[in-house]
Design a protein that fits this description.
By secondary structure, the protein is an alpha+beta fold. Helix content is 31%, strand content 25%. The protein is built from eight helices and 13 strands. Strands 1, 2, 3, 4, 5, 6, 7 and 13 form an eight-stranded antiparallel sheet that branches. The chain has a five-stranded antiparallel sheet with strand order 9-8-10-11-12. A hairpin with a 6-residue loop joins strand 8 and strand 9 (207-211). Helix 2 (75-93) crosses helix 3. It starts with 5 loop residues before the first strand and ends in a 10-residue tail after the last strand.
């Protein structure tokens, strides 16, 4: 199940058949790290079935899975082995290695140690909704998001995507919702829950976190009046989905609430098709309402011009185009 949701807008005009997508991903199929390789990135079968398709189509929705494998050697171990080699050179030749030679010794030490290093794997799910023009991934860290975007634009010719951008920034909207005196001032279908983080923009960067705490209080509003702005806020939608909205428009701690999957069928052995259909169906309802609560979506590539956006500028959201480059079930 998605634990995080990051939403991209696909630029108008891009389309791909299931067959062309499969062929494109097959050229970048995941291969485990070699003996002296520290990282490998590639596509794997979403169902986890060996030699299965790399693109699954369920109720018209495309599901992909990117695998990232890394091998790491502690820097202290590399430095120790390199120092041993440097000491040997000094003992046998009477001279100390220079900077360039020391760097080469460290590189050699790393290559020698990599075959002994343990592999670590992580994956990221990708959901492509061609009808609505959305691309959603559960990657949460910036490093993993970069891996996903790079892998996608390298695989698919002509693909251009940008982080979804709204007329009102999440931080501005969250500030308004936390300043509300009654739930009637919250956007329809949404409720503010019991967790948030506020940070000041001054040099001190003071912060306060509320956990399992009623947020509709004068205490919270006082922090906002003093200049602290929300960076994340726990919310729920229609009593069906809970999430933590962030200032960069990510949905973290994403979870379907009790009862959503009660009617889940069992057409396939592991419930993959049913889970994907139900989950993407719920997200197809949530996302438009979230965009509306944030003042509507801005046009692809447009710069923010509203007063709200100027007051709280979003993170950089440039389009990414192709050059001529937590594991468990996704839902």
């Amino acid at each position: 199940m998605f634990k995080n949701v990051t939403i991209y807008r696909i630029a108008p005009g891009w389309a791909a058949t299931l067959e062309s997508m499969e062929a494109a991903l097959d050229a970048a199929r995941f291969v485990p790290c070699g003996a002296t390789q520290d990282k490998s990135v590639g596509w794997v079968e979403p169902r986890g079935e060996a030699h299965g398709p790399l693109v699954e189509s369920v109720a018209g929705q495309r599901i992909l899975k990117l695998m990232i494998e890394t091998k790491g050697v502690p820097g202290s171990v590399v430095r120790k082995k390199a120092q041993e080699a440097a000491d040997h050179i000094e003992a046998t030749t009477g001279r100390k290695p220079g900077k360039k030679e020391t760097k080469a010794l460290r590189e050699d030490a790393l290559l020698a140690l990599l075959p002994q290093a343990f592999e670590r794997q992580s994956s990221a799910w990708v959901w492509i909704d061609l009808e609505n023009g959305w691309l959603v991934t559960d990657a949460s860290s910036q490093g993993k998001l970069d891996e996903v975007v790079t892998a996608l634009v390298r695989a698919f010719d002509g693909l251009a995507i940008t982080l979804l951008q709204t007329a009102v920034t999440p931080q501005t909207a969250m500030t308004q919702w936390l300043s509300a005196t009654t739930p009637d001032e919250w956007p329809g279908g949404f409720a503010v829950e019991r967790e948030c983080e506020l940070k000041s923009a001054d040099e001190e960067k003071s912060a306060v976190k509320f956990t399992r705490h009623d947020l509709a209080t004068d205490e919270v509003r006082k922090h906002i009046l003093e200049g602290k702005l929300p960076t994340r806020l726990a919310m729920s939608w229609e009593g069906r989905i809970g999430f933590m909205l962030t200032e960069s428009l990510q949905l973290k701690k994403f979870a379907f609430l009790e009862g959503v999957f009660e009617d889940r069928g069992s057409e396939d052995e592991n419930g993959f098709d049913a889970d994907v259909a139900l989950s993407t169906g719920e997200l197809q309802k949530l996302l438009p309402e979230l965009m509306e609560a944030l003042g509507g979506e801005m046009a692809f590539g447009a710069a923010p011009t509203s007063a709200e956006a100027v007051a709280a500028p979003p993170v950089e959201r440039e389009a990414v185009t192709a050059d001529a480059d937590d594991d468990g079930p996704p839902f």
